[in-house]
Amino acid sequence: MDQTALALKIGETATLKATVVPSDATNQTVAFSTSDMAIATVTPVIGKVTAVAAGTTTITVATVDGAKTASCEVTVTEA
């Protein structure tokens, strides 16, 4: 993932990027998820994070087979 920590204010968005290596891997598909949707949501395929409420959550990206994962701690503060 291109970031391991991210700070947003409520209502802001950011897009996380994931790179699968090696670049010629058979399956390049990944899925993003959040540990707390009440703090920040994330689109599963694109990785667009939306800050919902103040707090901290973890956004995780994983290969579809679950073999590789990476995470980003997202801290959301009041606007």
From TrEMBL:
Task: Tell me which residues make up the BIG2 domain.
Answer: 2-73
Q: Name one Pfam family in it.
A: Big_2
Q: Which domain of life is it from?
A: Bacteria
- What SUPFAM superfamilies would the database entry show? Invasin/intimin cell-adhesion fragments (SSF49373)
SMART domains tied to this protein: BID_2
For this protein, the record's InterPro entries field holds: Big_2, Invasin/intimin_cell_adhesion
By what name is this protein known?
Answer: BIG2 domain-containing protein
What is the organism field in this record? Loigolactobacillus coryniformis subsp. torquens DSM 20004 = KCTC 3535
